[in-house]
C-alpha cells in the first residue's frame, strides 16, 4: 500500500531534524541537583548558609535598621548602628578637599565635563580625528575651571586641589597618556634597531622593578635636582608624570603580548601588499593586537585608578586622604568603617564602570 | 593555451624579463636551503614549481618579494634589484602580488575593506575608485555578493578567491602563488583553480608552487622540479611529464601521479 511512498522517501535526504525535547526543571529539583548533589556539596551548602545567617542579618541591622543618616555626631555616639551621617556632614571636604568653599562649583563643573567627555567617547561612532581636538579643548577648559586666573575667575593654586576631582584627573589623564606611550614602547621593544630596543627594554624593566610609591617619592625629590635652582615643577604635574610613566611600562608588556599573538601570516600579507611599517602596524596589526589584549589592559587601567591613592605620599589630598582627614576630627573619629565603606563605594562605582564598559566593548568588537 | 609555439613566442617577443635570479643562494642559519638558483621569468610566462616538501620551493618565491632575504647572488624584479633598500623593496612589492596557503585575509576588515586597503594606502588611489576596482575584481572571482561580510563568515574556497582578488586590486605585474590550494577541501580546490586559469587566460605572469599537476599540464609554459634547494629539472609540461630526464624527477612523478 505505502510501498511507493517509502521508495520516494529513501531518495530524499532530510535536511530538517526533529525538534529537541523540552526539559523543564522545578525549583525543588534545581536545588537538589545544584546545591545538594553529593555529600561534599551538601555540607558546603549548609556551611555557606550558616555563614550567611551569621553575617547578613547583623550587618543589615547595623547598616540599615539601627543606622543614622543625617544626625549629629553626639546622637550617633549614643546609638550603636552605623553612623552614615559622617558622610553628609563632611561631604564637601571629602569630595573637594581644600578647594575654597565658595568656589566648589568650578571643580564640580570640571568633573561633570570630564564624565560627559567619557560618555561621549563611549559611542564608537565618535571615534574620529575630531575626538582628539575635543579632548584637548576639554583639557584646557577643565584646567581653566580648576586653576582660574582668567575670565574673572579667582586663581586657585594647585596645592589646594584635592578630593574626587584630583583622583579623576590623575587617573583619566594618566590612562589617556599612558596608553599611546605604552604602545610606542611595545613597538620599540620589538624593533630590530638595537638602540631603540635597548632603550625600551631598560625603561620597561627599570620602571616595572620599582613600586609606584617609590617613583612618586623620586619624582618629588629627584626632579628638583635636574632642574636649575629656583625652578619648581608643580607637584601635581610630577605625580601625573610618575603615574603615566608607571602605567605605560605595564601597558607596553601587555601590548607586546598582543603583538606576538598575531600570526606571521598577517604581517606577511600586509608587507606583500607594499604597506610600509607605520601603515602595517596602524591598519592591520595594532587593531587586532589591541583588541585581543583588552582584558589585561583594562586590568592595568583599573589598578592605575586605585593607585592614585598613593599620591598622599607627596602630600596631595586625593579622595582617600581627604576622607582620612575628615576622620581626624575628634567628633567623628570613631566612625571610620562608615567613611571607608563610602570611599570604597566610590572606587567600586568607578572601577566597575570601567570593567563593564570593557566587557561591552569586547562584545561589540567580536560580533 | 601553453603550446611550445606560444612558449617560444613569449621568449622571443618580450625583451622584458620580469624576474631575473642569478646565482642565488640562501641559508637559514647553517642550513643551505637554496643552492645556485638561476631563473629568468618573462612577461606573460606561467611557471609551476613542484617538488617534495623542504625542497625550498616556497622559500624561493618568498625571496622574490623579500619575505625572505637571500645572502648571495642577485634578484632583479621589474628592473629593480632586491637589496636592503626599503624603498626598492616597497616598490617591488607593489608590482608583485602574493597568494598564501592560509589566505591571510585581515579578519577585522570587511571583504571590500580588505581589497581596497592596498590601493588606498600604497597606490594613493581615492577611496571611491579603490572600492570600484574592488567590486570589479570581486565580480571576476565570482564573489561580489559577499563584499560586506567579514572573512570569518566565508568558506575556505571563498576566502582564497578573495585573497586572489585582493592581490589583483594592486594591479601587479607578477602573481606568486604559494601552495594556494593545499589547505582547501577537494570541492573548493576546483573553484580556486578555475579563477587561476581565468587569470592565466588573461595573460598574467604567474609563478605557482603547487602539487596540482593537472593545472601544470594545462596552463604552465614551464614546469620546474626542485629538490634539496636546487632546480633539478626544468622543461615544458609536455616534455616534463612525458619525458623526465633525472631519476629524482622520475621518482617524484611516479609518487605523485597515480
Topology pattern of chain A, helix = H, strand = E: HHHHHHHHHHHHHHEHH
Mean pLDDT level of chain B: 92
* Rg for CA atoms of chain A: 29 Å
Shape of chain B: globular
How far do the termini of chain A sit from each other? 53 Å
Secondary-structure element order of chain B, N to C: HEEEHEEHEHHHEHEHEEHH
Q: Largest interface, per-chain counts?
A: A-B, 18 and 25 residues
* Helix proportion range of chain B: 40-55%
Main pleated-sheet profile of chain A: none
Quote the CATH topology of the largest domain in chain A. Answer: MetI-like fold
CATH class of the largest domain in chain A: Mainly Alpha
CA-CA gap between termini of chain B: 25 Å
Mind telling me the CATH superfamily name of the largest domain in chain A? MetI-like
The percent range for strand residues of chain B is 15-25%
Number of strands of chain A: 1
Estimate nothing, just give the exact number of structural domains of chain A.
2
Structural class based on helices, strands and sheet pairing of chain A = mainly alpha
> Numbering strands along the chain, what is their spatial order in the largest sheet of chain B?
6-7-8-3-9-10
Question: Can you describe this structure?
Answer:
The complex is a heterodimer of chains A (367) and B (258). Chain A has 367 residues and is mostly helical. Chain A folds into 2 domains: 23-65, no CATH class; 86-99 and 156-366, Orthogonal Bundle (MetI-like fold). Helix content of chain A is 71%, strand content 1%. Chain A is flat and about 90 Å long. The longest helix of chain B is centred in the C-terminal third of the chain and has 16 residues, at 186-201. Chain B has a 6-stranded mixed beta sheet, with helices on both faces. A 4-stranded antiparallel beta sheet of chain B has the order 2-1-4-5, covered by helices on one side. Helices cover 41% and strands 24% of the residues of chain B. Chain B is globular and about 55 Å long. At the A-B interface, helix 12 and helix 13 of A face helix 3, strand 6 and helix 4 of B.
Amino acid at each position: 500500500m505505502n510501498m511507493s511512498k517509502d521508495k520516494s522517501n529513501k531518495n530524499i535526504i532530510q535536511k530538517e531534524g526533529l525538534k529537541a525535547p523540552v526539559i523543564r526543571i522545578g525549583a525543588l529539583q534545581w536545588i537538589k541537583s545544584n546545591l545538594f548533589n553529593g555529600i561534599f556539596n551538601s555540607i558546603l551548602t549548609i556551611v555557606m548558609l550558616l555563614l550567611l545567617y551569621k553575617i547578613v542579618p547583623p550587618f543589615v541591622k547595623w547598616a540599615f535598621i539601627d543606622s543614622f543618616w543625617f544626625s549629629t555626631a553626639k546622637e550617633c555616639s549614643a546609638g550603636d548602628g552605623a553612623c552614615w551621617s559622617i558622610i553628609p556632614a563632611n561631604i564637601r571636604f571629602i569630595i573637594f578637599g581644600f578647594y575654597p568653599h565658595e568656589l566648589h562649583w568650578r571643580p564640580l563643573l570640571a568633573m561633570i565635563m570630564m564624565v560627559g567627555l567619557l560618555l561621549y567617547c563611549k559611542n564608537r561612532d565618535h571615534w574620529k580625528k575630531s575626538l582628539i581636538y575635543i579632548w584637548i579643548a576639554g583639557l584646557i577648559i577643565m584646567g581653566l575651571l580648576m586653576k582660574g586666573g582668567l575670565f574673572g575667575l579667582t586663581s586657585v593654586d594647585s596645592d589646594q586641589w584635592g578630593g574626587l576631582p584630583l583622583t579623576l584627573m590623575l587617573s583619566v589623564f594618566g590612562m589617556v597618556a599612558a596608553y599611546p606611550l605604552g604602545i610606542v614602547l611595545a613597538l620599540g621593544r620589538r624593533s630590530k634597531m638595537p638602540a631603540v630596543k635597548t632603550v625600551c627594554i631598560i625603561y620597561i624593566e627599570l620602571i616595572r622593578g620599582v613600586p609606584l610609591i617609590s617613583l612618586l617619592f623620586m619624582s618629588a625629590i629627584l626632579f628638583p635636582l635636574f632642574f636649575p635652582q629656583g625652578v619648581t615643577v608643580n607637584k601635581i604635574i610630577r605625580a601625573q608624570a610618575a603615574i603615566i610613566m608607571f602605567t605605560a611600562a605595564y601597558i607596553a608588556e601587555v601590548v607586546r603580548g598582543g603583538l606576538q599573538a598575531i600570526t606571521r601570516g598577517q604581517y606577511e600579507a600586509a608587507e606583500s601588499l607594499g604597506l610600509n611599517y607605520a601603515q602595517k602596524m596602524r591598519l592591520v596589526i595594532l587593531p587586532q593586537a589591541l583588541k585581543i589584549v583588552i582584558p589585561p589592559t583594562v586590568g592595568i587601567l583599573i589598578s592605575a585608578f586605585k593607585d592614585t591613592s598613593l599620591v598622599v605620599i607627596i602630600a596631595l589630598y586625593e579622595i582617600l586622604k581627604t576622607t582620612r582627614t575628615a576622620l581626624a576630627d575628634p567628633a567623628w573619629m570613631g566612625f571610620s568603617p562608615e567613611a571607608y565603606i563610602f570611599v570604597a563605594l566610590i572606587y567600586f562605582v568607578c572601577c566597575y564602570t570601567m570593567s563593564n564598559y570593557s566587557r561591552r566593548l569586547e562584545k561589540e568588537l567580536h560580533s | 593555451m601553453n603550446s611550445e609555439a606560444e612558449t617560444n613566442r613569449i621568449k622571443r617577443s618580450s625583451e622584458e624579463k620580469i624576474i631575473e635570479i642569478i646565482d642565488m643562494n640562501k641559508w637559514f642559519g647553517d642550513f643551505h636551503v637554496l643552492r645556485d638558483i638561476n631563473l629568468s621569468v618573462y612577461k606573460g610566462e606561467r611557471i609551476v614549481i613542484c617538488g617534495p616538501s623542504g625542497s625550498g620551493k616556497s622559500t624561493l618565491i618568498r625571496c622574490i618579494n623579500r619575505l625572505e632575504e637571500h645572502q648571495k647572488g642577485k634578484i632583479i624584479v621589474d628592473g629593480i634589484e632586491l637589496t636592503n633598500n626599503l624603498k626598492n623593496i616597497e616598490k617591488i612589492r607593489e608590482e608583485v602580488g602574493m597568494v598564501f596557503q592560509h589566505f591571510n585575509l585581515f579578519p577585522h576588515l570587511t571583504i571590500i575593506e580588505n581589497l581596497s586597503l592596498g590601493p588606498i594606502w600604497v597606490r594613493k588611489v581615492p577611496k571611491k575608485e579603490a572600492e570600484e576596482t574592488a567590486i570589479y575584481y570581486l565580480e571576476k572571482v565570482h564573489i561580489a555578493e559577499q563584499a560586506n561580510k567579514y572573512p570569518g563568515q566565508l568558506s575556505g574556497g571563498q576566502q582564497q578567491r578573495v585573497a586572489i582578488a585582493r592581490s589583483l586590486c594592486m594591479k601587479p605585474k607578477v602573481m606568486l602563488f604559494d601552495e594556494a590550494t593545499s589547505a582547501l577541501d577537494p570541492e573548493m580546490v576546483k573553484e580556486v583553480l578555475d579563477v587561476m586559469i581565468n587569470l592565466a587566460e588573461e595573460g598574467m605572469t604567474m609563478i605557482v608552487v603547487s602539487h596540482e599537476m593537472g593545472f601544470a599540464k594545462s596552463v604552465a609554459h614551464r614546469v620546474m622540479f626542485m629538490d634539496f634547494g636546487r632546480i633539478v629539472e626544468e622543461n615544458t609540461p609536455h616534455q616534463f611529464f612525458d619525458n623526465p630526464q633525472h631519476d629524482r624527477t622520475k621518482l617524484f612523478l611516479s609518487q605523485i601521479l597515480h
